[in-house]
Amino acid sequence: MGINLKFELKADSKGNGTTLIMLRITVNRKLARIGTGYYILPKFWNPNAVEQMDNWISKKADDHLLINTGLHNKLRAARVVLLGFEAMEIAVDHKLLSEAIRAKWEGNTKVPGPEVLKPGLLKMLETEIEQRSHSMPSTVFAFRTLHNQVKAYSKAEIPFAKLSLEWLDLFHVSMLKTLAPTTVGRRMTMLKFIFKRAVDYGHLPTEANPFNKFKIKHPNVTKEKLTLENIRALETIVLAEDKRLNDARNIFLFQYYVGGARIGDALKLRWSDVSGTHIAYTTTKTGKRRKVKLNERAKAILDYYEPRTGKQQAWIFPWLRPSLDLEFVELNHRDTVGGATALINRMLKQLGEKLELKVKITTHTARHSFADHVRTATGDVYLIMQALGHSSLAVTETYLRKLDDGLIDTAIDAISGETSVKQ
User: Fold this and answer.
1) What is the Cα–Cα distance from 134 to 355, expressed in whole angstroms?
2) What is the pLDDT of residues 344-390, one digit of tens each?
3) SS3 of the chain: helix, strand, coil, percent, to 5
4) Residues 19-74: pLDDT tens digits?
5) Distance of CA 406 to the CA centre of its chain
6) Cα–Cα distance for residue pair 2/273, rounded to 1 Å
7) CA atoms within 13 A on the CB side of 23
8) Which of 7, 54, 289, 318 is the most exposed place for a label (fewest CB within 10 A)?
9) What Rg value do the Cα atoms of the chain yield, rounded?
10) 286: which DSSP letter?
């Protein structure tokens, strides 16, 4: 961060010809100025003064020693404030730094007291991102995006003491201008979590948390799902002439057949994950090991992509470049998995149009459809709740999180049918 402190003269003079000496504060090319309380005739000002020599005022001025000493003390106090922020690893802007320096000069012990020196919202978000560096890449990306949104809105660090209900309302409105309500709801939920962390760490009093009065709105969204008839139509449509459409259809159906696997997990499946009648993998989102039964339809898709000898570490589905290893894919999740998912979703949209489906198909539709079909096939509420990994069927975001292997197999058996070889 580029920060510079320098004395200069105010542009205009008083009636007696003297001019106020100002401290110019530059932070990343943005300026703030504070009056020092010292006035001097411009002819006694040394624009080429060297800080270490305390020679801002010419010796020809009667009070040069008094003013130079005063300026020295003020600059020293300003640097003490700056060092305090740096020691706490708090990013400051020109306004916050000028406010803190002015308070220091005035002997105000309340500003920049403990509330200013505690980590602000941006620092808390940065810490959260760092702590989640080994979490699901999409989660890290979401927090990084939130950090960037807060930074773009606030322009600089904000102490929690200054984050009010009004600030939350205005930030919420600003996001609604460019983002869907569901996305904004998720962002505000993440922000609420950060505020709770701030309370837990003692950076914000419980009673001062603006989320005590802010209600996050989560709009009701209809989760698109396919009927069994739609699934069968997707299985039987002839796509041999269009390999990419065929590959998109196959990975979608495989997600569905193996218990509504997430697309990120399906894309990263390798032949070494296949063992006889089951496929085992570690979920990216939860880090849990899953062992899932392969029904005949899933096996038919694997047979279509059967590996050559010595290719056990190769990807099952041809959406990630063969030269990429798992570590690279994990580190570059947004570009690799994210890019492949976007392409697959475009292909699925074309498939939906070919089949004249009334619903929009995405890779996530496979998860919604699996849970809905198990519910229809079994009527077993407990099984569905386990499949969703949540106490409420309405929360489809956590599909299958807590489903144990035996229940997964039961659920897969419930939707299994005749083998369908993928062309």
Assistant:
1) 41
2) 999 999 999 999 998 889 999 998 888 777 777 665 555 555 544 33
3) 50, 10, 35
4) 999 999 998 888 999 999 999 999 999 988 887 787 899 999 999 999 999 999 99
5) 34
6) 51
7) 29
8) 289
9) 31
10) T
Looking at this protein, which amino acid is placed at residue 195? F
How many Cβ atoms sit within 10 Å of the Cβ of residue 223?
16
Distance, in Å, from the CA atom of 101 to the CA atom of 79, rounded to the nearest integer, reads 9
Burial of 403 (0-12, 13-18, 19+ CB in 10 A): buried
Q: Is the peptide bond before 205 cis (omega within 30 degrees of 0)?
A: no
Closest CA to 268 of 320, 198, 205, 230: 320
Number of helices (H) and strands (E) in the chain: give both, helices first. 16, 6
pLDDT (0 to 100) of residue 402: 37
pTM of whole model > 0.70? no
CA distance 277 to 356: 35
> Are the C-beta atoms of residues 31 and 95 closer than 8 Å to each other?
no
Q: Which uninterrupted H or E stretch holds 291?
A: strand 289-293
Question: At residue 419, does pLDDT exceed 80?
Answer: no
Residue 132, classified by CB atoms within 10 Å of its CB into exposed (0-12), middle (13-18) or buried (19+), is middle
